[in-house]
Predict the structure.
Amino acid sequence: MRAIDDSALGNIVDWTPVFIDIEGRQFSTWRGVPEKPSEYVPGGDILVPGVEKPTSEQVAGIKAIRIDLIGERQPHHLIVEIRLPKAIATFWDVLAVDRLHVTTGAFASTGADSADGLTIPVIRFNA
């Protein structure tokens, strides 16, 4: 995908862990850190096998979105809940438009059974 305005997408320079399966070491979820966090946001989380930070191959082409082009929405639907002996991981999606069941394809993850306080950026249709 290519943006009409090159400034619409920004670089992600690092990845911070959201959830790490420290017991089974099977998977982890990560959130991108934009090069300019006051101007850009990541569009969701990434799920990777294992517990190490994503490799450059795993995140090739992933960009951040300029803040003025998005609206932040609260997740509405629990996709998956994984209960481990000492932890819980949940995955949430969000509707692109209220009352229309059009999902964005992005997801956010938590290490809790709730998405309270969590938001996912959605591209504004009037941007």
The two ends are 17 Å apart (CA to CA).
